[in-house]
Write a structure and sequence with these properties.
This protein is an alpha/beta fold. The chain contains 21 helices and 7 strands. The chain folds into 2 domains: 371 residues, no CATH class; 93 residues, no CATH class. Helix content is 58%, strand content 7%. It has a 4-stranded mixed beta sheet with strand order 5-4-6-7. It has a 3-stranded antiparallel beta sheet with strand order 1-3-2.
Length: 565
């Protein structure tokens, strides 16, 4: 059980004891803070702008002790390949010569060389590279945009001061300390798209401000190019509700809202379909064939959803790491997911991920039956339930898979906190008011404290895994080679291992100019063909042994032309 989860349980128990014994604790300081927050929240535009600025300021100040992260996960390298490609002004790259040597998880090497993922995340990373010199700055800006978008979205659903609270909670829980900020595969981009869709709906329906249909359309484009499947599932209730409302309005008023909504939404749908189709065409050769689907056809053996049957495909893998990724690890994850279908996954959905909402923010959800009496937020509840049910059946679900509705989750939490505060009378009302104040504060303190303690434990230095030390290894190889190098990687897996591993065979999009190429060792004869295809490079061997998901041995050695795999 994660230490942060234990800390939050302890904090919850302490809060409950104080609420029962001395419920009027902290009235003065809490009251002053709430009055100040109410004064600030009235200026709605300033609130979401200030929230974004606060994310940038806090994380920028932390760079002195918490450096820019290095990629480690397969997905991160895939997104970074897309980012480097876009930053170079290309949509994709030609398939490498002898592409079998360059295979890597989540990467297409044929028909073109590109990430398998939708392009939105890589576009954001590329903007960080182009504007500020490093892809992580794209992550920073997207997380700032996510916190601002959550505030803006909630302002359409609830009073401004409560919307500000939801934004600040998301700032701490997601936009500063979590992997959404401190990696390259988080969900901030999809969260922005989801918030645009959800935030536009109440402004269109309640305020009849049809110009916000443009925001909804842009949000749908972002979702289609970041998390298309989850975005479509979570946006379906919004589309149904909007059509139902527009139909009723058409019957009641002479001027139908259909035309005012159709123009921006259809235009955005057309533009989004053309852009996405053209990107698909450039990468896979077919406008309707997504790179993700092309990659699945080439490598994957498990379906997207747990209730689906295994296709029983007989795929011949050319390299040990690719075979382990898709034939052993993903298959074991699929089987484990089925076993947890009515066990661990229900607990995950009910109690929340310890890095996203956590037990302290899920505790107020006991007030959900009373919160749902306010019909204005029922759509948020429906979207959240649809997303939660979807996560129960999706293979390999991570917290950022829920990114399209993360604003709705925080909205539900805040709404439940509001009803926790509005107890009926007497001591119960006082206890509820104390908990409505203490639980958000405790959540922020626990999560921040855990991050600080973890940083102090490591001396505020990231503990680098072997693959995260590749830049240093490449510098050593270039110096030893007195020029460019090519590394033939040999993988050795413990036959009992079913954990994820770190893959070394990731390269930049410009293979010809890369100082070091990381390729598979495919035997003496084929290796010689590769050396002739990429001349002028000093060859090396690199052996890596994996056990329990960890690299137990890494070793470089001189290339021996007489050896075989």
């Amino acid at each position: 059980m994660p230490l942060s989860f234990v800390l939050e349980i302890i904090a919850l128990l302490i809060s409950l004891v104080i609420a029962a014994a001395v419920p009027d604790s902290g009235n003065r300081i809490f009251g002053r803070t709430e009055r100040l927050g109410s004064k600030i929240a009235v200026r709605e535009t300033l609130c979401w702008q200030a929230t974004a600025a606060l994310v940038v300021l806090i994380r920028a100040l932390l760079l002195a002790i918490w450096s820019i992260p290095r990629p480690r996960i397969h997905d991160e390298f895939a997104y970074l390949l897309g980012a480097a490609t876009f930053a170079a002004g290309r949509l994709t790259n030609p398939s490498p010569k002898l592409w079998q040597f360059f295979e890597a998880p989540h990467i297409l090497v044929t028909p073109t060389y590109q990430s398998m993922y939708p392009p939105a995340q890589s576009v954001v990373l590329a903007s960080g590279t182009v504007l500020l010199g490093h892809p992580w700055f794209g992550v920073l800006l997207s997380c700032a945009g996510m916190s601002a978008a959550i505030v803006w979205m909630l302002q359409g659903w609830m009073p401004a001061r409560w919307a500000l609270l939801g934004g600040l909670l998301s700032l701490v829980r997601l936009a500063i300390c979590s992997y959404w900020m401190n990696s390259y595969w988080g969900g901030a981009v999809a969260a922005i798209g989801g918030c645009l869709v959800m935030g536009a709906y109440p402004r269109i329906v309640r305020q009849r401000r049809f110009g916000y249909a443009w925001a909804m359309g842009i949000g749908l484009i972002v979702l289609a190019n970041s998390r298309p499947f989850e975005g479509a599932v979570s946006s379906l209730p919004v589309g149904v509700a909007l059509l139902y409302w527009a139909w009723n309005q058409h019957r009641l008023v002479p001027r139908s809202p259909f035309s005012q909504l159709a123009t921006p939404l259809l235009f955005c749908a057309m533009v989004g379909a053309l852009l996405t189709g053209y990107y698909n065409y450039r990468v896979t050769g077919h406008a309707l064939l997504m790179p993700y689907r092309e990659h699945a056809e080439q490598y994957q053996q498990v379906p997207l959803l747990l209730p689906m049957n295994l296709p029983g495909r007989n795929i011949r893998y050319r390299n040990a790491d690719i075979q382990y990724q898709y034939e052993i690890w993903e298959l074991s994850q699929f089987k484990e997911g089925r076993e947890q279908y009515l066990g661990g996954r229900w607990r995950y959905v009910i109690f929340g991920d310890h890095e996203t909402l956590g037990i302290l923010l899920m505790a107020p959800m006991v007030m959900l039956p009373w919160a749902l009496r306010d019909g204005r937020l029922r759509l948020i509840f429906v979207c959240s339930i649809v997303t939660a049910l979807h996560l129960l059946v999706e293979h390999g679900a991570w917290p950022h898979y829920a990114a399209p509705q993360i604003g709705s989750f925080f909205g539900l939490v805040v709404q439940c906190i509001r009803h926790l505060r509005a107890g009926r009378r007497g001591k119960l009302r006082q206890a509820g008011r104390f908990l409505s104040r203490a639980l958000p504060v405790a959540s922020v303190v626990c999560f921040t404290g855990f991050g600080i303690s973890s940083g102090q434990e490591n001396g505020w230095k990231e503990t680098l895994t072997p693959v995260q030390q590749r830049p240093e290894a490449e510098a050593t190889l270039v110096a030893a080679s007195k020029g460019k190098a090519i590394v033939f990687v040999r993988y050795h897996f413990d036959p009992r291992m079913t954990e994820p591993f770190e893959d070394w065979n990731y390269n930049s999009p410009d293979l010809a100019d890369a100082p070091v190429l990381w390729v598979h060792d495919m035997g003496r004869t084929d290796n010689e063909k590769l050396l002739r295809a990429y001349p002028g490079r000093t060859p090396w061997y690199f052996s890596v042994d994996y056990s329990n998901g960890l690299a137990t041995r890494t070793e470089f050695s001189a290339y021996d032309q007489t050896s075989s795999r």
